[in-house]
Amino acid sequence: MPTERSPLLHSKLSPIIEQSATSFSTDGRSSPPAPSKRFETPDDALHMIGNPGRFHYIQFFALCLQFTPLLMSDLIPIFYNLPPQEIYCSHIVAANATGANFKPDIPHHIGYPGRNVTTDYCDCNGTLTFVYKDRQTSIIGDMQLVCSKKSLPDFTTTLYYVGSAVAGPLVGWISDHFGRRPVLLVASIVFVGIHVSLVFVRNFVLFTILRFLAGVGRVGMFSTAYVLLMEWSPPNRRTLVAAASEFFFPLGVMTLAVCSSFIQRWDLIQAFLAAFTCIALLNVWFAPESLQWLIVNGQINRAEETIRKIGYLNGHDVSENDVSGLAVIAQNTLREQETSHKYTVADCFRIPKIRKFTFLISFVWFATNFGYSGLSFLIDNFSDNIYTDLLVGGALELIPCLLATVVALRSGKRYPMTAFFVAAGVLAISGGLITASRLKVILALLARMSLVGSYCLMFLYAAELFPTQIRNSGFGVGFLFFMAGGMLSPSCPCLHATPSRDFLLLSLEEYRFWVPQR
User: Fold this and answer.
1) Taking a C-beta distance cutoff of 8 angstroms, is the pair 463, 471 a contact?
2) Do the beta carbons of residue 371 and residue 421 sit within 8 Å?
3) Burial class, 418, CB count within 10 angstroms (exposed 0-12 / middle 13-18 / buried 19+)
4) How many Å apart are CA 280 and CA 301, to the nearest integer?
5) What is the value of pTM for the model shown?
6) 265 and 166 share a domain?
7) Cβ-count burial 21-40 (b if 16+ within 10 Å, e if not)
8) Which of 291, 340, 344, 456 could form a disulfide with 404 if both were Cys (CB 3.0 to 4.6 A apart)?
9) Could you tell me the CATH number of the domain that includes residue 290?
10) 21 occurs within a structural domain
C-alpha cells in the first residue's frame, strides 16, 4: 500500500484502536479484554474463524473449479487447428490443368495443411472444399487458412499468451489496489463473454482479437483465484492447498478430451467450454474478499463482518477480543509498511545470489510451459486418435500431481523437481531418436506427465528461494518468462520436416540441474 494513503488509514484505525485500549466504560463496567499478543500479522487473523472449516472446503472447490476451464482454453487450439484430410478444388488455373478436380492427400499435421505435398489447390480460382475425418471441423476450413495463410492458426495461440503476459502485471496492480474479488469477477465475466463470442465468429481478425482478450481474462481469473486461495489458507496449510489445487488442471485435460470426442466440431467444443466457464462463474459468489487485503487496506468493518459470517459457517464463535485484534493487526501492518524499504523489480538483479535465483527460476518456468504446451501441440502430428491420447495423457498427469503433493509435505523440492525434469528431458530425447509414431506419442505423453510434476512444485520452490520483500517482483519476472514459453510453443509443429528436432528442442528441461538448493 502506498505511503500517501497512510493518513487516511490512520483516520480509520484511530477510533477503533482507542476504543480497544479503553480499560473501563463510563458506567464502571469492564470493556472487552485487550487483544491477545498472538494477533500481530494478517495471517494471525485466520485463526479467528476456525481454520480450516466448512467454508474453506467449499471455497477450495469453488476457486479450484476455475482452473479447469482455464486449462481447456489453453489446449483448445489443438481442435482449432485440426488439418483436413483432403481439399477439393472446383477449378484449377495452371499450365497443366486438366479441368478435373484436384484431390491432394494432406498429412496429419496441426495447422499446416499441404506441407511436403504439392499445393496446386493454392492456384484454385473456384471453391475449396475441406474434408475432415468423421465429424471434425476446424478454423482452417471455416476461415480458409491455407497456402499463404497456413501459419495464421498458430499466430492466434501466440497472441493468446501475449494477452496473458501483457495483462499479468496490470492485473496484479489492480487487485492490490481494488481487491481480489472484484478483479476475479470482472475477469470471469470477460472470459465467459469472449468464449461465448468465439462460438459464432468466422472472421479471422476478430477471432484473433478475441483470443488475445481471452488470454487477458485467463490471467485475471487464475492469478486472483490463486491469491485468494493462498490468502484464506493458514501458513501451515498453504503448501498442501497449493499442491492439491493442481489436480484440477488434469481434470481439465480429461474433460476436454471426453467432450471433444463426442462433438468433434471446433465450434461446438468452444460452446461446451463457454458453458463450462459459465458454471465456474457462479462459484465466484462463494469467494469473499481476502481478509488480508481488507486488513492491510484498513477496511476493518468489512473484515469484522466477513470473519463473523465465516466463523458462523464454520461453527466457530468470533469473540470481541478477536474483533479488537483486527485493528491491532492493521496498525502493525501499517507501521511495518511505513518503515520498510520499498523494493522493486530491480532488486531481483542487484545481489549476485538473488540475480542467479531470478535467472534460473525464469528459465525453469519458461522451459516448463514451453515443454508442456509444445508437447501438447506436437502430439497430434503422430497420434492416430487425438481424443484417446489426450484423455490418457490427462489421467497420467494425476500421478505426478499426487507425488508432488506428498513430496511437498514431507521433503524438499529441489531433488524431486530435478527428477521430474531429467525424466522429461530423457523421454523427449528418446522420442526424437525413434521413428515409430505410436512410440513417439507414448514418450511424449510420459514427458508431459513429468513436466506436470515440476509444474506442481515450481511455484512453491520459487516462493522459498525469493526473500519476502521481493517475492512478488520475482514472481512477476518469472511469469513473463512463463508466458514467453507459451508464446513459442506453437512453433514446435513447424519442425515437422525433422521430427527428431521437435523432441530434442523440448529436452531443454534437463538443464534444471542448475537450480540451487534453498
Assistant:
1) yes
2) no
3) middle
4) 29
5) 0.78
6) yes
7) eeeeeeeeeeeeeebeeebb
8) 456
9) 1.20.1250.20
10) no
